[in-house]
Amino acid sequence: MAGEKKGLHLLDFWVSPFGQRCRIALAEKNLAYEPLEQDLSNKSDLLLRANPVHKKIPVFLHDGRPICESLAILHYLDEAFPETPALLPSDAHARAHARLWADYADRKVFECGTRLWRLKEGGEPQAQARREMVEALRTLEAELGDKAYLAGEAFGFLDLAVVPFTAWFLAYERLGEFSVEEVCPRLVAWARRCGERESVARSLHPPEKVYEFVGYLKNKYGDK
């Protein structure tokens, strides 16, 4: 993007789990950047120019050149800054495995969560979304197993890709009327471990604040 200033910039929205995973990754790599908070109800010219196809955040700007989609941004950070701590594992099979599970979280956890707040409360469609959410969380817990982290014994790409969704657990519980800790205690313990990392603690917001935002979404966009 000609004319943009040099350096690293992240077009983001405070509560976006996809933006948060980029913030965590940048912190893990000790890369200094300028956050550019976006108003998604009145999208900036910069955002529309940087991501003309999807017109959404996050967008990472490296010397004015845009990289769109959060998982693509994480891959780019490893490739563009090889001197920083790697996010993805070095083994090709392990990298493919991590990408598969990150995609699973996007497709299952986020999609079911969206249906929970969007669908009318008390109906069978919302009940089905609750059942699918519980199944998705249990599937993630099974992948975690007895490991300290989803990535293994050390915090890695898969953890930082999935952990932003944990700030939404309270909203999922209240909308779906279930307890994440009761159905997935090891996953909750994992979330607490991740939350002790400075990169995660600085990037996520309190669950009550996230729940308030979900209430706003439900009131504005949910089925009546």
From TrEMBL:
UniProt domain GST C-terminal: residue ranges: 91-213
A GO CC term attached to the entry: cytosol
EC number, UniProt record: 2.5.1.18
Any Pfam family hit: GST_N_3
Keywords assigned by UniProt, alphabetized: Cytoplasm, Transferase
Record domain GST N-terminal: where: 6-85
Domain of life: Eukaryota
Entry's Gene Ontology molecular function annotations: glutathione transferase activity
Catalytic activity annotation: RX + glutathione = an S-substituted glutathione + a halide anion + H(+)
Known function: Is involved in the conjugation of reduced glutathione to a wide number of exogenous and endogenous hydrophobic electrophiles.
Family classification: Belongs to the GST superfamily.
Name by which UniProt lists this protein: Glutathione S-transferase
